[in-house]
Design brief:
With 186 residues, this protein is α+β, with helices and mostly antiparallel strands. 24% of the residues lie in helices and 32% in strands.
Amino acid sequence: MKLKELKTDKGTIYQCSCCGQVYDELPLTFGNDFPDYYFSIPHSEREARIEIKESLCVVDDKHFFHRGRLTLPIVDRGQDLVFNVWTSISEDNFIKRNNLWNSSERVNEDPYFGWLQTTIPTYGDTLNLKTIAIENEAGLIPTIKMIEDNHPLTVDQKNGITFDKALKIVDFILTSGHERTAEKDQ
């Protein structure tokens, strides 16, 4: 493990053994700026074919995506490991979400079905897993609930994970960025 947990007189800190970066708190929220489908569009065509705004994305006026929050409870810490993820959404539900974005009534909507469009590190192939999006109060992105039977991500969201497992996931996320940077430098 490259992320070290260190005890200090001010509490616990976390330090990357690769670069020395120190975190006063363990980062527990991660996210992607785009749905994975975005990267299937050639770079030279993205501006013409993709409309993206904050937590909404439309590709070719026929593929609709929205961002939501997928949480994994950390059972022995009372915290969550959070992934801001993208899922697909039908055109009708996309329009409905836009129309209700500022409405307090949106929390009464039935969940929206979608396919996960974000790779979640350490969980293998997570693209196109079944999800539902549950609306939150006005102005907040929806909660994403995994509904893919027997997938480890679904199981961990339902049952929670240990802090040790969360630390390993965070370590993988933080240090994999160093490996990509090192590859580019060569």
